[in-house]
Amino acid sequence: MTLLSLRGLSKTYGTVRANRHIDLDVAQGSIHAILGENGAGKSTLMKLIYGVETPDEGTLHWHGKPLSLTSPNEARAQGIGMVFQHFSLFETMRVVDNISLVVPGTSRALAARIRALGEDYGLEVDPLAYVHALSVGERQRVEIIRCLMTDPKLLILDEPTSVLPPQSVERLFITLRRLRDRGVSILFISHKLEEIRALCDRATILRDGTVTGTVDPRDHDARALAQMVIGREMPHVTPPEGKAPGKVLLELAGLDHRPDDPFAQALHGISLTVREGEIVGIAGVSGNGQGELARLISGETRRHPQAGAEVLMMGKPVGHLGPAARRRLGLAFVPEERLGRGAVPEMSLSDNSLLTAHGLGLVRRGLIDRAAERRLTNDIIATCDVRTPGPQAEAGALSGGNLQKFIVGREIALAPKLLFASQPTWGVDIGAATAIRRRLADLKAGGTGILVISEEIEELFEICDRLHVIREGCLSPSLKVSEIGPEDVGRWMIGAEGGKAA
Amino acid sequence: MSAIGFILAGMLAAAMPFLLAALGELVCERAGVLNLGIEGMMALGAVVGFIIVHSSGGHLLGFAGAGLASMVLALVFGWLALAVRANQVAAGLAIGILGSGLSALFGKSFESQTVTGLPKHALPWLSELPVLGGLFRQDVAVWLGLLAALAIWALLRFTKLGLVIRAVGENPHAARAIGYKVIAIRYAAVAFGGLMAGFAGAYASTVYTPLWAEGMIAGRGWIAVALVVFATWMPGRLVFGAMLFGAVSLSQLAAQASGVALNSQLLSSLPYVMTILVLGVISANRGLLKMNGVASLGEPFGP
Lengths: 502, 303
Fold this sequence. Notes:
Chain A: Pfam families: ABC_tran. Chain A: Residues 4-233, 250-497 form the ABC transporter domain. Chain A: GO terms for molecular function: ATP binding; ATP hydrolysis activity. Chain A: Keywords: ATP-binding, Nucleotide-binding. The complex is a heterodimer. By secondary structure, chain A is α/β, with parallel strands linked by helices. Chain A has 2 domains: 2-230, Rossmann fold, CATH 3.40.50; 248-493, Rossmann fold (3-Layer(aba) Sandwich). Chain A is built from 16 helices and 23 strands. In chain A, a hairpin with a 2-residue loop joins strand 14 (311-313) and strand 15 (316-317). The longest helix of chain A has 16 residues, at 166-181. The N and C termini of chain A lie far apart (53 Å). The interface between A and B is medium-sized, with 22 and 19 residues.
């Protein structure tokens, strides 16, 4: 039986036709994947279904009757719930307070219901805990519980696994299957093909705002699905070559750090080396100290000059130096947030290249050489396949994947000795992510030492020589990628330290 | 009366203009709106309240008129900040200057005139205590002001409405996504801030020093804004901060009267210095700031 059916749904923003004549049927009690690259129109489609946006044309049928939604409230009243990619929780409140903002009832009654639902669906969370103290996985459980409390018939999940360790993903899938067995339909947005094959019984593929096919994902292998998603042959990353790594470029020696932000994770005894011509990865669930560690390596957080030589770059103690001084030694850095830290959204791409590449002859006698700036930017755009009208385009106007390709390209253009990239492919589509990984592999072959923080285990296994896992501010020993499997990393991530240390 | 008795008896009344205005601003800021026009809204409330009481409309009517006038001015700010999405700092400053200007205009013919203040109500038994007794002989507005502080504390801590106000201030986008009307809630918070600033102004001009003089608010609105931040957006600390400020102002007067050999300008700056020091020390706790600070404060919000 069809629960939700869309016919000819279209939505245009300015000149961008985000959705064109979308047809979609979601059956009752099915887990239905919406698959597509970034910018393919997945988010717009979900906003239309959840009533955040209204379609320009087309109809939406719910239980066989036409429905027009003008707000999320109406969607919720009809039984449509949504779990957002960026959680819409309030950090300074308790779990039960967050839920009481949506569901009526006294705190005591709600807390009891939260516990009951948790046991029922494997979504255990302490209703009296403050949200800021919860892990990402727990926050997601809170979001799902909040949706389930309103008794939805259709649950929309936007990239729910992008933030979870493998064990939590499996746990989430158990919950989702249990929901399906009780008649709830699920729209599962993702670009992770293996997960879709493991979980979903239908998959609708979007490309450039149109539906390019609806298939049973279990009948196709990941490679065939990927081809449907990007519309061409899957690009291939050459596996890293086995050249012997050279001298040490980055060394952290037993670094302890307690940030002044009380919600931040303290770091304990972090030891790590990165050598010439190798890629070292740091895996872990976000919020386990990655951000704090990244700031210590980039120089955004400085150590006290008397703190001792705990951070060494190219053999020099740099703990007390700021980002500019470290960059002069040969460090390049791709931060986690593209907008605001990696690039200034309001400035053109040209001006954004100037920000870190000013040393490459873009400034003469204190004046900016606009022609050189444009040349360099055009080079980056061409070599990294950045899709943009040109160097004058505002950085904030680029899609996430394209901007990320640009930022990585800019840092690579610096010909760094040491590159540090934090979540280089986060939220980037398959095509762009593959391109970025290939650029990193090329750079490594040229002798650069690379440190990558990522939550995507598959990515780390694809490009890294060695891995560490960060958990609650502690770093695992170095693990050789060729000697371990994702499950070993997963055990380190959840603290069951049965992994083989190399 | 001893100096301590004098300070205890007067500090609540001295604190009241700060406390009332700051309570309104606290609610406004908790909803994510920074209104820097408090000074001007207090001035407008002060003159409107004074004119009504002077034409013997009585204090009840005077406070109501003052609250209403300042609320209208606050809503003009709200329109600028919320509908037009102007910069909140600039809009607040502009509205503040407008309010001070209007108060001078309306008060022109009332300059240096006086009215009768409010009688003191003594709490039985407590007001008979030695030294402390003065603390329990206050006018009705003081008792109501302290009740208001208690009510706002309970509102923010225990009620759904308080939860919604905090939600809107912490993350307006999430609040909208789960179905709350962010702009409407912020308008209401701004209006409440205006109402309280009006009461504060009326208290200053018709009860605390019952006379009208142009510029009589004399920076009290700014102190109120600062108190909110120093109190880390917690009503309990706000009461403490306002009382501390009142007490130090009075002790400075007492010191001058008893002929302490200190420069009088230095003495007059004492309340400001003391308040900044004490509240600066308490607000240095980053955990408290993070839990109670308003994440979206001053940011324009548009869907």
